Records
---
Amino acid sequence: MIDLPNGNFLLPDATALVEGAVFLVVLFVVSKFVLPRLQDMAIRRQRLIEHDLSSAAAAKVAARRHEEEAAALIGQARREARAIIDEAYERRDYVVAEGMRKGREEYEWFTRTLDPVRTRLSANGDAAQRTFAASRSSDENSEATALKVG
């Protein structure tokens, strides 16, 4: 026959009862005091994460909007710069054309004014050259005469 230990194996001994009681006390303390704090921290962390994610999404939208505004401002600045450059080219062309026109007018005025003077000087110069040539030849003749006489 089978030899059974003393006592009933279905009934726990005192050690098992004490261990069970300690387990129930620890379970009660953990469920009453520790778990609510852990759950509160987890909920706060979840809310913080959700808040940060929504802030990040809002910041991303704001950044995209600012990028679009910056691109629009850059485009406007480029258009204004192009308009200023085009206006500068037009002014340059106008100033050059005006300078050339005034230069031509001054040239024509000088040529109109100086042509009679040049003609007079030329005529006077020719007369002066003739007079000089005549005086030179008369000087040569008088020198030659003086040499012959002397």
---
Amino acid sequence: MTHSALDGLKLYALDREGLAVISAHTQDICIKRADMTYQPKQKRFALAGMRYDWAGAEEGREERVGSVLRFDRVLSVSHAGFKEHEPNEMLNMLGLTFEKTEAPSGIVFLAFADGAIVRLEVECLEVELNDVGPRAQACECRGHRLTRAESM
């Protein structure tokens, strides 16, 4: 069976619970550091990568799909734990969390394998995950060995 980007997810989050859903779907997304960008004039941070299709895995498919994760209303971005001169370093995202400061403002944390982290200071939580394709057979990503669904 073939799948197109039209089969993909399009999720929005405006609160911590919605972000938890997006975090679950972006667990183990493979990203190159060079594919993360901050656009301060637009108050936007975005990244593109190959997302492991957890829903497809339940149906026996082991695929990754090209996805874009976008955060709007971003005031500042900082990071730690990245190798400074390796823009093509492959990263494995473990999860997303949100901590309120002065409601509705807060900090979004993007945690990666090997301890790297991105910190987004946001006016409020406004996140979109959008599958844009293509689909490809899943392969291992740095910091994460591929585990078959039936062995879990």
---
Amino acid sequence: MAQTRRYGIYDSGRVVVAPVLVLMTLVAGCGGNSGSETSKGSYDPQTGRLVQITYDRNGNGRIDTWTRMDGARPISSELDTNEDGRIDRWEEYDEQGKLTRAGWTRPATPPAPGATPTPDAWLYASADGKTSRIEFFDTDNTGAQVVTRREFYEGAVLVRVEEDKDGDDIVDQWETWEGGALKYVEFDEGKDGRPDRRFTYTNGALVLIESAPDAKGVYTQRVVPGGR
């Protein structure tokens, strides 16, 4: 079983966001014309309060980030990271302007032509700004989005995964990671919400298969691949 994470492209150790400090600098320059064709502020005509900033994230002269503002505080951002004319990243901030979660559209699931892009993955940040959880969504047979994979991190290191392989909104596969490597995968083959088979890996190789758990969940049958 491959140990690659096939659900998206991200850096779990460092949440890459529209730089809030840069936004604050732009806020300071938005009292008038900042001189930039891309970094512009929009204001509430009644209150004069800043409500949006546009930003050129990569400095190529094209607007690729739109940030909703409440005065000097960023609320949320929408980004077109590949500049194809469609939003593909979303960010939300707390009262202090820190990132709380970031969403994106996975390369494998681009929106249909003419459809409004929506995120199918959400990354949740911990208080220190590192990744704490990532949730991936797929569309079920009713057209609703359901979480099909949750990744849990400690100190930005992946430690466990819960997965719904058949899209019925019930977890049926569990992964345990140790030191950045897959250690265990457990499967619910009886469709009762409980694991009944476990694979154990060492250095990326399958070394043990266990099955037939008893009433306490202890596996009673063990098979060593290759008969070692």
---
Amino acid sequence: MRRLTALDAKVLSRAFFSSKEGGLRFRDFKTPETSDKVLVDILNKMVSFGYLTKTIGQGRRPIYKLTENGRTALNSIGFQLIEFEDVKRDIENLALEKEDLIELERQLDQLPTVRTFRQLIDELLAKNGPMHYKQLTQEILKVKQTKGKTPDQTVLAILERGTRGQNPRYVRVGPDIYGLNPSYQPNTKSA
């Protein structure tokens, strides 16, 4: 996930909240605190990250649409879908001052990063000790969304891969039950 500034988040939020089916034009993103040059830079950056798509509309004016990657980016920086209506109203009605932007950026920096399945598996096994892979999956799905149809198989595959080699990350302690290997050395290579 690429690092986003407060202005980046605001631009993506405008794209998300827009009710325009055909996409947004440049002027739809315009706010009192952003110059045209800054806004062009942000929009181009969002397109290069894959968060927005850019097409040419009537009059050769660019049209921007939010992508699924853009939605994921918004979710990962702390926007929860349940709260979007309140956030939408605040963003549309609030012209942020420079100090507000600095504070918003500071808050965004403090948000937790998106964790991988393996990081979550490690955390859960360290906290709870050995667990069945289906129980691990249930706990992971409480904090992480996935588009995969078989998340339990993803978890099992990570655990199985982690038991291989001379320095395995995980140990199998029973049928489909795995724990952290207490002698695992992260700096050495494992298969």
